[in-house]
Write a structure and sequence with these properties.
434 Repressor (Amino-terminal Domain), elongated, 94 residues, mainly alpha
Length: 94
Amino acid sequence: MTHNHLTPVHPGKVLQDELEEIEVSSDVLAQHIGILPTIIHEVCDGKRNVTAPLAMKLSRALGASPQFWLNLQNNWELSQVNECEYHEIKSIAA
């Protein structure tokens, strides 16, 4: 059985692509949702995570669900974990 794995992307890349598609600058988005422009810049640069409150704001402004943004963030974070560091942990469940 083969597994096709997609490489997760940081939610900032998706956000940047969305902004380009709708022709809205990150500064305009930041002002529209009431946050500092540096927050959007840092998310788009992959230097800041999407939090639940930010996911809600992005959802209201861009139309995707908050879960969409948080799932992108969770998938990205999990892709950055080195599973080898946890190989010694065994299941505690019966």
